[in-house]
Design a protein that fits this description.
The chain contains 6 helices and 8 strands, in the order E-E-H-E-H-E-E-H-E-H-H-E-E-H. It is an alpha+beta fold and about 220 residues long.
Length: about 220
């Protein structure tokens, strides 16, 4: 039982088939893991992808000295959240038990909309927590990873990210909107993908084409 890893580099994600990417100035580096048997857990496959991503991060560090890994996390919308749910917020919600108590994070922000209420927040992630953060993003459609020089974790940034990434109050992230800001910035957005019955899991790293040219990718 094995997992194979491959890396695909696209100078134009739009031209390479990422339909939700509208700008020709957005590149993608995809780390794709494939299991040879469904008896290999998808978490194992994703972990191999994360290990390869960490190798890339180490190669990129000279160009990204001020960047930090950040998780954007959001619960599903619901009209049934109660007082206990509100006290728990995003950080006390199901699936967040891996996040260390002392991890820098925003407040849990409650956001209402037509589909109901959701809780959202931003947390800085260390290398040792990157796998759990990626697996959370893989299994929660309202969440993603960022590599960003902007370390502000204030409530206002959370609200801005939610407004930009769920522009019509969607239940899941609008990836067109999530990726759009990278085209003219040094921000990186990462999508973790792979369902329980898929043979592959992947980390799609979206960044500007200009930034890709500055980085070493092997």
């Amino acid at each position: 039982m094995t997992t194979s890893i491959r890396i695909e580099i696209c100078e134009s994600a739009q031209a390479s088939g990422f339909r939700f990417v509208r700008s020709p100035n957005v590149a993608a580096v995809s780390i794709i893991g494939c299991r040879d048997s469904l008896s290999v857990s998808l978490r194992t496959v994703l972990n191999a992808c994360v290990e390869r991503l960490e190798v890339l991060f180490s190669e990129w560090r000279a160009s990204l000295r001020s960047h930090r890994r950040i998780l954007f996390a959001a619960t599903a919308c619901s009209v049934q959240y109660n007082a206990l749910d509100r006290r728990s917020g995003i950080w006390g919600s199901e699936g967040m038990g891996w996040l260390p108590t002392g991890a820098p994070r925003s407040p849990s922000v409650e956001i209402g909309g037509k589909q109901g209420t959701r809780f959202a927040g931003l947390a800085e992630i260390t290398a040792s927590d990157l796998f759990d953060a990626a697996d959370y993003a893989r299994t929660h459609s309202g969440s993603c990873l960022l590599v960003s020089p902007e370390l502000n974790l204030a409530e206002a940034r959370v609200r801005s990210f939610v407004a930009n990434s769920f522009p019509k109050g969607e239940l899941a992230l609008d990836w067109t909107a999530v990726i759009e800001p990278v085209q003219d910035s040094d921000e990186i957005r990462i999508r973790a993908a792979g369902g329980f019955d898929d043979r592959e899991a992947s980390l799609d790293v979206f960044l500007s084409t200009d930034l890709l040219h500055k980085l070493v990718v092997r």
